[in-house]
Amino acid sequence: MSRETIKPTLVTKESVPSLHFPNGDVLTSEEALQNRRRSLEQAIKLGNNQKRKVKIIFEDADGIKKTETTIWGITDRSILLKAGVRIPIERIHSVSPY
Question: What pTM was estimated for this model as a whole?
Answer without folding.
Answer: 0.91
